[in-house]
Automatic annotation (TrEMBL):
MF terms (GO), sorted A to Z: beta-glucosidase activity; carbohydrate binding
Family matches, as Gene3D superfamilies: Galactose-binding domain-like, Glycosidases
InterPro entries according to UniProt: CBM6, Cellulose-bd_IV, Galactose-bd-like_sf, GH, Glyco_hydro_5, Glycosyl_hydrolase_5
A Pfam family per the record: CBM_6
GO terms under cellular component: cell surface; extracellular region
PANTHER family recorded: ENDOGLUCANASE, PUTATIVE (AFU_ORTHOLOGUE AFUA_5G01830)-RELATED, GLUCAN ENDO-1,6-BETA-GLUCOSIDASE B
A biological-process GO annotation: cellulose catabolic process
Protein name (database record): Aryl-phospho-beta-D-glucosidase BglC (GH1 family)
Keyword Phosphoprotein: no
SMART domains per record: CBD_IV
Keywords: Carbohydrate metabolism, Cellulose degradation, Glycosidase, Hydrolase, Polysaccharide degradation, Signal
Family indicated by similarity: Belongs to the glycosyl hydrolase 5 (cellulase A) family.
Length: 583
């Protein structure tokens, strides 16, 4: 209780709103984003990557992974009619009201919508009349539905032009860019279409306070001065074309909408603001993107400096794709500095996000073909695999990673641990190794490799090497011999796992540990509520790291009710599947 009161006091001192959704339009007030009542608003959101714009990695596609190429290659396999049917099903299933309802319930207050321009208007080279804009109802209707779901939940919706006409950079997948066609930057027609699209959006949503902001160009990454050697614009010193276009977009928006907050992003994937200042509008915020670096004050010093010098709010518009440890540390750092955030993405085929879309055998075969070639899959199998994938993208068919949500919403300001699953201990009850408590590293578990910091260290370190089941640093593998069974592997000296259990009957128990080891070096220590009850019991050699066998630790006293059991690797080198409690 003292901690909660202290946190509330700190937030109030910092001017941070703790009341949730406010009233009226979001706007800039000095270095803060505030609502219509002038209250500080701390945005906690997620971007809907993969919905309107599929980046190949979210679908496990690594070759020719721009959306337009994925679509062309699928069309070659099963024809345009069935391809259109898949994309219609994908848009209808991937994002629905149940998703927004769930996000609100989990603790998020905003959504960033990555828009693909081709859902709102035709590409320049497909316009029936050159210089004219054909408006497509599909994108606007999808946006209207999403906005209505946000309104129902009192959540802000931030519009993000993720794929601009022509593409805004050399990272081709991000903007679904076709390099054979003119860039956004070398095509006046593409720039005019971009400006016109923003004017159209602003005209449509000018009176909608639940539209939180306009994020006008996602992740520009183009070397204007030296495109050969500075491909993604990270070293660009001038950024004149980027500034010019953003000024023109702002002018077009302000012709019809004087109320909405406008968010801009620097070059070099959002972080290079050289030449962008001074700002040209009084109601703006700066976005930056943050991936795979340390979560210390130095990692955000550049944007804090810009915030203070320009007297403008900042917002972390995109981050994620890492471990729970990284998520918790990043959010703690951001909120301590009164910086709101939007994670990336809500769902994909992959595990380090709130929802994981499950694959299927026919889709796996398609991915293998698209990435590696070989025998062409049957059109009926391609169709079946893709339609099943679209159905699997529905929230109720995904794997919901509550550990990821907990790491983002609760853990940044709490060291408390919670049970991952309810463990009622009766005679012969089993607790699986992978079902250790929810909580921070060093509190719910301890692992020596917890996150990927490769942009700081130039060395990749993935945390959970298996990239499966949970998103902490604990290494987890799937048991190939048992359906939906997992075990902890790569256990190193000093690592431990904690389990909050509820014992139905006090007594002395035998712990049957199911483990596998190629040698007899491993040793286990067991602690209950912080006290050592068994010290350095040898893990038997089973002859193979995947050949599991049970050994016994006898005479372990358990009291009635809740207690915390820690299994410590005094010496690692073994794999751990489960504990069975025998009274």
């Amino acid at each position: 209780m003292f901690f909660k009161k202290s946190l509330l006091y700190i937030l109030l001192l910092c001017g941070v709103s703790v009341t949730g959704f406010g009233q009226g339009f979001l706007k800039a007030s000095g270095t803060k984003i505030v609502d219509g009542r002038g209250q500080n608003v701390l945005l906690r959101g997620i971007g809907l990557g993969g919905w309107m714009l599929q980046e190949g990695y979210m679908l496990k596609i690594t070759k020719e992974a721009q959306q337009y190429r994925i679509r062309e290659r699928i069309t070659d396999l099963m024809g345009p009619k069935q391809t259109q049917e898949f994309y219609d099903a994908w848009l209808a299933n991937h994002m629905r009201k149940i998703d927004v309802d769930s996000m609100k319930r989990w603790g998020f207050n905003s959504i960033r919508l990555p828009m693909h321009y081709n859902l709102y208007t035709l590409p320049v080279d497909q316009e029936p009349v050159a210089g004219k804009n054909t408006w497509l109802e599909k994108g606007f209707a999808l946006t209207d539905s999403l906005l209505n779901w946000c309104k129902a939940n009192k959540m802000y919706l931030i519009l993000d032009l993720h794929a601009a006409p022509g593409g805004q950079g050399n990272d081709l997948n991000i903007a679904d860019r076709d390099p054979s066609k003119p860039y956004l930057w070398d095509s006046e027609a593409n720039q005019e279409k971009t400006i016109a699209l923003w004017r159209k959006l602003a005209e449509r949503y000018k009176n909608e306070p639940y539209i939180g902001a306009y994020d006008i160009i996602n992740e520009p990454n183009y070397g204007f001065s030296n495109p050969e050697e500075d491909k993604n614009g990270t070293k660009e010193k001038v950024n004149a074309p980027l500034r010019k276009l953003m000024v023109e977009i702002t002018k077009a928006i302000r012709e019809v909408d004087q109320q909405h907050l406008i968010i801009i992003e620097g070059n070099g994937w959002g972080n290079n603001y050289n030449g962008i200042f001074p700002l040209w509008d009084k109601n703006m915020a700066l976005s930056f993107h943050k991936y795979w670096n340390y979560n210390d004050q130095a990692s955000i010093a550049h944007i804090i400096k810009a915030r203070d010098e320009q007297q403008v709010p900042v917002w972390l518009g995109e981050t994620g794709e890492n471990s729970n440890v990284w998520f918790t540390d990043a959010i703690h750092l951001l909120e301590k500095n009164n910086i709101g955030w939007s994670w990336w993405p809500l769902k994909k085929i992959g595990f380090n996000n709130p929802m994981e879309i499950k694959s299927n055998p026919n889709y796996d075969a398609l991915v293998k073909y698209l990435n590696n070639g070989g025998n062409k899959p049957k059109d009926s199998n391609v169709y079946s695999g893709l339609m099943e994938l679209a159905i699997y993208s529905r929230l109720e068919n995904t794997i919901i990673h509550h550990d990821v949500i907990d790491a983002m919403i609760r853990q940044p300001f709490s060291n408390e641990t919670k049970p991952f699953k309810a463990h009622l201990i009766q005679n012969k009850s089993i607790v699986y190794a992978v079902d250790y408590d929810l909580g921070k590293n060093s509190f719910a578990y301890f692992d020596t490799d917890t996150a990927d910091y490769h942009t700081s260290t130039n060395k990749r370190s993935v945390g959970n090497r298996g990239r499966i089941y949970r998103n902490d640093g604990v290494d987890i593998a799937k048991d190939s011999l048992q359906y939906e069974k997992y075990y902890v592997n790569h256990i190193e000296n000093g690592e431990w796992l904690q389990y909050t259990v509820n014992v139905a009957q006090k007594g002395t128990y035998t712990l049957k540990i199911n483990a596998a080891a190629e040698n007899a070096a491993g040793r286990i220590t067991v602690l209950i509520d912080g006290k050592t009850v068994v010290k350095e019991v040898a893990v038997p050699n089973t002859g193979d790291a995947k050949r599991f066998a049970t050994f016994e630790i006898k005479n372990v006293p358990l009291k009635w009710g809740k207690q915390k059991i820690r299994v410590l690797a005094a010496t690692g080198g073994y794999n751990f599947s489960y504990i069975q409690f025998v009274k």
